[in-house]
Amino acid sequence: MERPASPTRRAPRRLARLALAAGAAALVLPVVVAGLKSLLLVAVALAGTGITAAGVWWVLTRRGAVRVLAVALTVAAPVAVLLYYAHADLLWVVLTSLALWILALSCGRAAVHGAGQEERRVRERRAPPPRRPFVIMNPRSGGGKVARFGLKEKAEALGARVTLLDPDHPQDVAALARAAADEGADLLGVAGGDGTQALVAAVAAERGLPFLVISAGTRNHFAMDLGLDREDPAACLDALTDGVELRVDLGFVDDRPFVNNVSFGAYAAVVQSPAYREDKVGTILEMLPDLLTRRTGSGLTARAGATVLHEPQAVLVSNNPYRTGDPAGLGRRDRLDTGMLGVLGVTVDNAAQAAALLMGPQAPGLSALTARQVIVTADAPAIEAGVDGEALLLPVPLRCEIRPGALRLRLPRNRPGVPVTGARLDWSHLCTLALTTGH
């Protein structure tokens, strides 16, 4: 006789069945209510989306009256689609189907996660508290998070030696970290932005010391992918008393480290402008038309393994690949220990190609690759680059590479967003899970 399944095992199956039922309802509802008009619903939605994407392209690549008209088109297209649905008395059908589809995706992910079908977590092990931790803190980072959360005092209370940077007198943080290691520090840490994190992380990797990330920057993308608390950076200090250790990869562009990514092309050129900090939107709108249409800027070539990208408008090389097939996870990295660089290249020459980008990774103008090494060259002696958000001018050719498992990370054992690594939702797998019975 088959043993009844436990509640823990039954829950994923129920979620899988709910996901399939909601997904089926989302597809069937328009057909039942609208009949053949459901095909027209889809066609109108696709047309409106394509027109909106084309309008955005014209907004970014044109100036003056043409840009004004493009803005009007970008706004009018989705409004017209909604008005059509409302006039046909089908707006409620569209909104209900959309809600059902969101429910299906949410339940599907929860079912796969609960059933243990996602890949294993990045391996971590318990670590003893450090005896002589050394932490560098930037008091201006994140709008003053160091003072606002009392990070210096809390770290010192836990036995750390803290060095506060003087914003008016720039210091070499890598040199500070090396000096601390020479004096016997057994852990290096940073409360600051991702650029500062990378520089000190490279020293920790060089000396074989654990590295502590304190999420006191503005965006803290590295901390986000590590599952750290970005709202309360003081929680990161728990790693000094109740920590775990894991190894992750570290990226380099020539000899400069990066924990997140290095960008080349349009975005990197824009952030180099002296006017960018004072007027971000105005500077972007002024510079992008010439950059995107290649009237200005360096002609880039990027070689990732056997693939060569010729004259892309933008190239992003990341320490491990970003998600591209899951809209809910854009900007996130599932893993930081694959030993591979992620490469995203964008090549768009007209409005039609811009609209095609909505196809995601399959779009002809978007290249999503992985490689252990990327070589970037240009038709100029030096090019603009954004290295973990830092605007730099670097000589070409540039070599981006990854050093697998180079960085020992010390993290709090309990952290709010521990990332469970895994692939995107597989509907066939979900069907199998939903139909499974017994234990």
Note down, in words, how this protein is organized.
Strands 1, 2, 3, 4, 5, 6, 7, 9, 10, 14 and 17 form an eleven-stranded mixed β-sheet that branches. This protein has helices at residues 7-34, 37-61, 64-87, 91-114, 145-148, 151-157, 173-182, 194-207, 221-225, 266-272, 280-292, 351-356, 427-435, and strands at 125-127, 133-137, 161-164, 187-191, 210-214, 243-253, 256-258, 261-265, 300-304, 307-310, 314-319, 341-346, 366-371, 373-378, 382-387, 390-395, 398-412. With 439 residues, it is of the alpha+beta class. 36% of the residues are buried. The protein starts with 6 loop residues before the first helix and ends with a helix. It is 40% helix and 23% strand. Strand 15 (382-387) and strand 16 (390-395) form a beta hairpin.
Query: Care to count the β-strands?
Result: 17
Termini distance? 12 Å
Helix count from the secondary structure assignment: 13
Note the overall shape: globular
- Output the helix-strand order: HHHHEEHHEHEHEHEEEHHEEEEHEEEEEH
Structural class by SSE content: alpha+beta
Beta content comes to: 15-25%
Instruction: Indicate the low-confidence ranges by residue numbers.
Output: none
Gyration radius (Cα, Å) is 25 Å
Major sheet details: 11 strands, mixed
The overall average pLDDT, rounded, is 87
Approximate helicity band: 40-55%
